[in-house]
Specification:
receptor, signaling receptor activity, ligand-gated monoatomic ion channel activity, mainly alpha, synapse, 54% helix, D-Maltodextrin-Binding Protein, domain 2, membrane, elongated, 2 domains, 10 helices
Length: 227
């Protein structure tokens, strides 16, 4: 009974008044103390690593991060407005990105939006595209995500011939639709409320944790056996 309580007391780090007297039992007791110290320390050290769910951190958060690395290639639609924006930009970050895209081999430019999106889905590629098309694509494929905000902001317009009497009428009609919120309603209808949009409801997800197995702390049992 005394040996049992001594063993349990040391394992629980509570100590015991029943200390061994003989030299041989003191040696065995010392080995047991050493074993319990290692196993508790190992368990504490591994607990955070194996039972804590860590938030995944995206290595690329904005254009500066993208421009500061070369491991992940990035490109635009060839001959598109985004490509023209980078080519003509006077901002140093965007100039650096343009030099990378222009000199990268094989070419990082794509012929269609579909080709660019597929390259992203295939992995290790970032596609720089118009925000309207980007929103549409991200809403329909949960494997896609937008990183960072807008690099530039421009509005769409309806072209008319020079001096056309329809120019002012069309402009006023568009402003009226904006003020009434109808343009936003149309955007929500065709971009967000269609049946083929993906659901990004993270609230229902359950976090999973790895169990701490014998393989993780098996070394301390080897110490005990050797002792």
């Amino acid at each position: 009974a005394n040996s049992f309580w001594f063993t349990i007391g040391t394992l629980m780090q509570q100590g015991s008044d029943l200390n061994p007297k003989a030299t041989s039992t003191r040696i065995v007791g010392g080995i047991w103390w050493f074993f319990t110290l290692i196993i508790i320390s190992s368990y504490t050290a591994n607990l955070a690593a194996f039972l804590t769910v860590e938030r995944m951190i995206t290595p690329i958060e904005n254009a500066e991060d993208l421009a500061g690395q070369t491991d992940i290639p990035y490109g635009t639609l060839e001959s598109g407005s985004t490509m023209t924006f980078f080519r003509d930009s006077m901002i140093e970050t965007y100039k650096k990105m343009w030099r990378f895209m222009e000199n990268r081999k094989p070419s990082v430019f794509v012929g269609t939006y579909e080709e660019g999106i597929q390259k992203v889905l295939d992995g290790n590629y970032a596609f720089l595209m118009e925000s309207t098309m980007l929103d549409y694509a991200v809403q329909r494929d949960c494997n896609l995500t937008q990183i960072g905000g807008l690099l530039d902001s421009k509005g769409y317009g309806i072209a008319t011939p020079m001096g056309s009497p329809w120019r002012d009428k069309i402009s006023l009609a568009i402003l009226e639709l904006q003020e009434k919120g109808e343009i936003q309603m149309l955007y929500d209808k065709w971009w967000k409320n269609t049946g083929d949009t993906c659901s990004r409801n993270d609230k229902g997800k359950e976090s999973k944790a790895n169990s701490l197995g014998v393989d993780n702390i098996g070394g301390v049992f080897v110490v005990l056996l050797c002792g």
